[in-house]
Design brief:
2 strands, Arc Repressor Mutant, subunit A, mainly alpha, single chain
């Protein structure tokens, strides 16, 4: 595959922009590895570049809104696909389910807190603490200095 762009111009472009050109010219979608191999070949980069940069390239494709990852694991340009072919990441039903789960989790947490809280234990603790502290005397700083 040879793009109608000079190598000098390609070298000034980002990998994702080159990927857009490749996918525009191509009639089919491509997986990450094949797409990046074409970029490496067009730019005449060493094979080690492919191995060291493929993960970064995948991340770039994932975050760029121009690209879409299809069900078959191949990338294509979003504008080539109608909205009915695009898998929705989050739907209204998912959001409602998430809200219901949050409510249930909050109720469970409140119940756990209520179960862990026992008034009798607090009263016993207060009585024990008061009994232990009854013999203590509070001395202010002035009295402390006089004793020294």
């Amino acid at each position: 595959m040879s793009l109608k762009v000079k190598k000098e111009e390609l070298e000034l472009m980002s990998n994702k922009d080159i990927a857009v050109l490749i996918l525009e010219e191509s009639k089919k979608s491509m997986n990450t590895a094949n797409l990046f191999k074409k970029i490496v070949k067009l730019l005449e980069l060493p094979e080690s570049t492919f191995e060291s940069k493929i993960a970064d390239f995948y991340t770039t494709l994932s975050t760029d809104k121009r690209f879409i990852l299809l069900d078959n694991g191949k990338w294509d340009l979003r504008n080539k696909h109608t909205s009915d072919k695009i898998i929705k990441v989050s739907s209204e039903e998912d959001e409602e389910e998430d809200e219901e789960e949050d409510e249930i989790n909050n109720q469970v947490e409140e119940e756990i807190e209520e179960d862990n809280y026992d008034d009798k234990e607090d009263e016993e603790y207060d009585e024990e603490t008061n009994e232990e502290l009854k013999d203590l005397v509070v001395i202010d700083e002035d009295e402390l200095e006089l004793e020294e």
